[in-house]
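Late entry, evening session. Most of the bench is empty. Finally got around to the prediction I had been postponing all week. Sequence below, unchanged from the version circulated by S.P.
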Amino acid sequence: MARRRGQLVSDTTMVTTTPGSSFDEQVAQDLLARARREGVSLVGPGGLLAGLTKTVLETALEAELTDHLGYEKHDPAGRNGENSRNGTRAKRVITEVGPVEVDVPRDREGSFEPRIVPKRARRLVGVDDLVISLVAKGLTTGEVQAHLGEVYGADVSRETISKITDGVLERMAEWQSRPLERVYPVLFLDAIFVKVRDGQVANRPIYVAVGVTVDGERDILGLWAGTGGEGAKYWAQVLTEIKNRGTEDVCIVVCDGLPGLPEAIEATWRRAITQTCVLHLLRNSFRYASKRYWPQIARDLKPVYTAPTPEAAWERLTEFAAAWEDRYPAIVKLWENAWTEFIPFLAFPVEIRTILYSTDEIVNRWGRVCGVASGRSSPRRPVLAVRPSCSRGRVVA
């Protein structure tokens, strides 16, 4: 591959760049024009993208070998009697665009360890991601094998597909047991429902634990598959697992009042404060009321959870009860029963309240990213503009 006066020349195609268009766009346009002109496909065996992939991989491998040896190809510096190039060896790898024959360069000492196409690797990482994605969508190993053969012309055995997915399970187990931070100022616990195939497809809860570190970053602590009927014993096991992985203390635990969870929190971290999810409390309130009254109930409950102090919130709840207790006494009873777990967030400024207000934003964002089937390390994103620290079971900004 070489450059000549605005052109990129390779054994695959020749791309002429034009003013006003990016190089990537020009490559795509020229490849599409050539495919139409020659009547060949872009992907699959013999496709133009396979040829372009071959060129890119071989160029990258040559660059890796140059970096390993310390001199360019045909450079007289290589005639010093030390390690030098030693031809190439053909290797067939499966890529996202189909099988590709790659000429992998070698060195005389055999110490060259390529990274883009590792030794003994027969497929690129993107193929593993594709297989995992297909399996996560519910395809069997036979269906995945047929799909890869029909669309990409790739011959991947069922055993290989099983090994790829088994590797994910191993990485997930490693991620699930990794050490955690010693202290989390805030811990969120909630569930997302996903379709799980276990003989038959059914909705099952995946419980998610997300901690906020002392640096103000979110950290997914773990995922646990449940059945929907978990109680205090189950939650005691989950929280004990988090504690055994290094978390000695948690200041505030935000949850949606799952049965047995507050008791398990108190048994695991005695000084932790349990904060009920306000959005879950509102949704549960609406279940007792006719839909025609939802806007009025929402309007009358807003002064309760936006009150400046717990005392003011109780006054607003009393006013709400005076207006609605005769029609919907169950809503008033619901808030009274949850009062102890509802009021802790009212002791904080508005900026902190918005974080402790609900588990929904956390789970909605990370439930999609955490990769229920990916097994990758949990991502971290900033959540607090302040640096909190623990002091006597409280978050001090």
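Two things to note before I forget:
Residues 130 and 171 are 17 Å apart (CA to CA).
Confidence is low (pLDDT under 50) at residues 1-20, 366-397.
Will write this up properly tomorrow.
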